[in-house]
Inverse folding.
């Protein structure tokens, strides 16, 4: 049985009103250093076979190391800011879940010694000899080396290790590449929106064809006499 209704149906078309609220999943570009660096890092990872680093050129490895370093630093700064905000919002020690994980408010105790004389006097009064708790202070040893002829090797065990550190960053090159990526993303979003709009319009047209009543058309339903 087909029933015609005069009530309006919900439209499946994308809202073209520019004054309407943005959709929850609409892409926005945050003004954050970690976002820009992460975008550049993702681009680099997609363009190179990083699963086998032995075959990656030295210049590419340098770029990856630089971007990873920048992402790590900026992500950690943002993580600390978010942690401070969460600390104000979480008022119990039970885990609170988001979409990708959960966090919980916790506490830890940090200890620092009181004044040296106070500590030594307290322990000595409890029967602990001062020599058992007094140790060599590295900072004071360094100060002593500056005013004596004692060689560093006479009082320190030294071991040299080599490592890589970031020397400088070509910000202009990063900004040029970043702008190119943003332009590509904007074009990609526009294409996706146009495709989605076409699909929705086609779907709505098919729905209208199936539910539309036209003059001159008759509709036949089976009754018990037809069976």
């Amino acid at each position: 049985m087909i029933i015609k209704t005069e009530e309006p149906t919900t439209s499946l078309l994308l809202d073209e009103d520019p004054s309407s609220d943005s959709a929850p999943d609409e892409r926005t570009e945050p003004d954050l250093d970690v976002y820009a660096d992460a975008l550049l890092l993702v681009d680099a990872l997609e363009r190179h076979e990083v699963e086998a680093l032995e075959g990656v050129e030295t210049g590419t490895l340098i770029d990856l190391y630089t971007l990873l370093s920048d992402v790590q630093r900026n992500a950690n700064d943002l993580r600390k800011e978010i942690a401070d905000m969460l600390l104000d919002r979480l008022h119990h020690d039970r885990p609170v879940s988001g979409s990708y994980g959960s966090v919980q408010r916790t506490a830890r105790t940090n200890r620092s010694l009181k004044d040296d004389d106070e500590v030594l006097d307290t322990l000595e009064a409890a029967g602990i000899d001062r020599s058992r708790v007094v140790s060599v202070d590295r900072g004071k040893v360094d100060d002593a080396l500056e005013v004596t002829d004692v060689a560093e090797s006479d009082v320190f065990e030294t071991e040299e290790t080599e490592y890589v550190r970031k020397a400088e960053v070509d910000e202009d090159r990063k900004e040029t590449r970043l702008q190119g990526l943003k332009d590509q993303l904007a074009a990609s979003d526009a294409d996706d929106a146009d495709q989605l709009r076409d699909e929705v319009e086609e779907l709505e047209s098919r729905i209208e064809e199936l539910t539309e009543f036209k003059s001159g058309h008759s509709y036949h339903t089976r009754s018990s006499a037809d069976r």
